[in-house]
Amino acid sequence: MSDPRKPDSAEPSTHFGYQSVPESQKAQKVAEVFHSVAAKYDLMNDVLSGGMHRLWKRFTIELSGVRPGNRVLDIAGGTGDLARQFSRLVGPTGEVVLADINASMLKVGRDRLLDKGVAGNVKFVQADAEKLPFPDNHFDVVTIAFGLRNVTHKEDALRSMLRVLKPGGRLLVLEFSKPSSSLLGKAYDAYSFAFMPLAGKLITNDAESYRYLAESIRMHPDQETLKGMMVDAGFDLVTYHNMTGGIVALHRGIKP
Ligand SMILES: C[S@@+](CC[C@H](N)C(=O)[O-])C[C@H]1O[C@@H](n2cnc3c(N)ncnc32)[C@H](O)[C@@H]1O
């Protein structure tokens, strides 16, 4: 009989930051990170990006081409920055679904949107990006902001997003990426591995989650690789825009 405490050597491994872990453990480890940071997530976003995440998200909304009456899915939507703007733009005849795998992040998102008076056209759904519980050809726009990096099987998630989009619908992937100059890359490395965990320790008493953030960014596919993955998943007209010197990239693909 096999010893259940020993890792099953037949199981494929994946990365969790710089660690190699069995695939079945990654989602749980990611969940622990977001349960731990949920309460201070918005504050940390502003501190770590110097408020720039708001500009990156604004550009995402502009490129989505969302219109009144549209149906929008924001997957890995967390505390609802994108969902809140989409709710205003689709209006009372549209619908926004904020989906996230993590109950703590969803709760912070739901409370925050209610506090800001956003109600009526937003639904909150706990869901895994790899297995979206929505019908085929359902949404005009799907977004995933700073979420794909955390997903274990990214190809499955991209195919699932393609399935739920209507033909002609748009997927927007906002994610950390690869700085376009090596000088910027070096400065960013110093910032990420020194300042991010320190700020995490001081503000959330959790340096480890912010070390994971820095490491997971380095392990995420670069601009061209992600573009290729979107093409392989079946998206058409895939393009990307670098922002802040490639520290962040916005990929867009259309469902044929
Ligand atoms: C860095 S936060 C981004 C939140 C928000 N989109 C934003 O830009 O502020 C990443 C989010 O991805 C969620 N997440 C991680 N893995 C996921 C998965 N497999 N499916 C859905 N959401 C996931 C986490 O729970 C977390 O809320």
UniProtKB/TrEMBL annotation:
Record GO biological process: methylation
Entry's EC annotation: 2.1.1.163, 2.1.1.201
Keyword Ubl conjugation assigned: no
Main EC class the enzyme belongs to: transferase
Pathway: Cofactor biosynthesis; ubiquinone biosynthesis; Quinol/quinone metabolism; menaquinone biosynthesis; menaquinol from 1,4-dihydroxy-2-naphthoate: step 2/2
Binding site for S-adenosyl-L-methionine: 79, 100, 128-129
Pfam families: Ubie_methyltran
Domain of life: Bacteria
Keyword Mitochondrion appears in the UniProt entry: no
A GO term for molecular function: demethylmenaquinone methyltransferase activity
Catalysed conversion reaction: a 2-methoxy-6-(all-trans-polyprenyl)benzene-1,4-diol + S-adenosyl-L-methionine = a 5-methoxy-2-methyl-3-(all-trans-polyprenyl)benzene-1,4-diol + S-adenosyl-L-homocysteine + H(+); a 2-demethylmenaquinol + S-adenosyl-L-methionine = a menaquinol + S-adenosyl-L-homocysteine + H(+)
UniProt keyword annotations, A-Z: Menaquinone biosynthesis, Methyltransferase, S-adenosyl-L-methionine, Transferase, Ubiquinone biosynthesis
InterPro entries with a match to the protein in the record: UbiE/COQ5_MeTrFase, UbiE/COQ5_MeTrFase_CS
Chain residue ranges for the region called Disordered: 1-22
Function statement: Methyltransferase required for the conversion of demethylmenaquinol (DMKH2) to menaquinol (MKH2) and the conversion of 2-polyprenyl-6-methoxy-1,4-benzoquinol (DDMQH2) to 2-polyprenyl-3-methyl-6-methoxy-1,4-benzoquinol (DMQH2).
Family from the record: Belongs to the class I-like SAM-binding methyltransferase superfamily. MenG/UbiE family.
Protein's name according to its UniProt entry: Ubiquinone/menaquinone biosynthesis C-methyltransferase UbiE
The organism of origin for this protein: Geopseudomonas aromaticivorans
Gene (name only): ubiE
